[in-house]
């Protein structure tokens, strides 16, 4: 009976001890280091996803503006105005820069092209800086 009690208190048969004395407290320091690294990675992923969301939303609004400006009874400037209105509802006012519209010829077809330039969203001091340019095109009606 004493032999089995000794085995439970000391080393288990054929296995390493559960912990070493030099490993005590290592979990706390490992957690602190990994928590910081994981937090930075999560914030970087949020930064990227927010920038992609703004780009996709701006692209959709500019394309809708191009479709609006390509109608037979409207001018390309009406499409730029429509894109500005849509961007104003989803993108903050300080990100909006310039929205332009023009009628161009692509492969022999009249096309209304609406272009918007806005700044990328940035959380904190890190992230992509500069301007974002998105373009939408639609075939002009009445050709």
From TrEMBL:
* Listed Pfam families: TadE
TadE-like domain span: 25-67
Q: Which InterPro entries match?
A: TadE-like_dom (IPR012495)
What protein name applies here?
A: TadE-like domain-containing protein
Q: Which organism is it from?
A: Ornithinimicrobium tianjinense
Task: Give the source lineage, highest ranks first.
Answer: Bacteria, Bacillati, Actinomycetota, Actinomycetes, Micrococcales
